[in-house]
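ok so I'm stuck.
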Amino acid sequence: MTRVIGMAGARPLGALRSGQAAEEHMQLAALGRLLGGFRYRYGSEVQLHEVMASVLTTAGHPFEREYRLDARNRADFWIDGLVIEVKVDGSLSAALRQVGRYIALPQVRGVLLASTERWGGDALVDRPAWGGKAFNMIRLGRQAL
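replied:
not stuck anymore, here's the structure
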C-alpha cells in the first residue's frame, strides 16, 4: 500500500474514474473537512464520539450512533449509507481490515476513517475508492486536557 505523508485533516481524494460514486466522494470529503477542522478535548473514545456528535448536529448532519450494520459490524456514526469509523488507538492495518468489512456490505456507500493516531494523517493515494465505494481517512487533532 502506497502512503503519502500529508497534513492533518481532509485531503483531496484524487481524480475520480468512470464508475466511481462522485457524490459519495464529495460527501466524505466535506465530512472530513468538517470533523478535521477541530481539535478535540476528550478522555475516552466515548467522550470523543459525544463531541463529534455535537459537531455533526450543529452542522445539520442527521446521523445515527452505534448503527448495527449486521450481526458482526457496528458503525460509530451512520449518515445515510456513509460510515464514520473513529479510532483513538490501534494499528492502521487493523483499522483498514475493519473498513474492508464495512465496504463489503451492500448498504454502505462509503467510509470515513477518523483517527487520533498519527497514521490518520497519511493520505492513502491508492485507495480513494475501495471496491467501487468512496473512502477517506483523516486525523483528528487533540486538544490537551
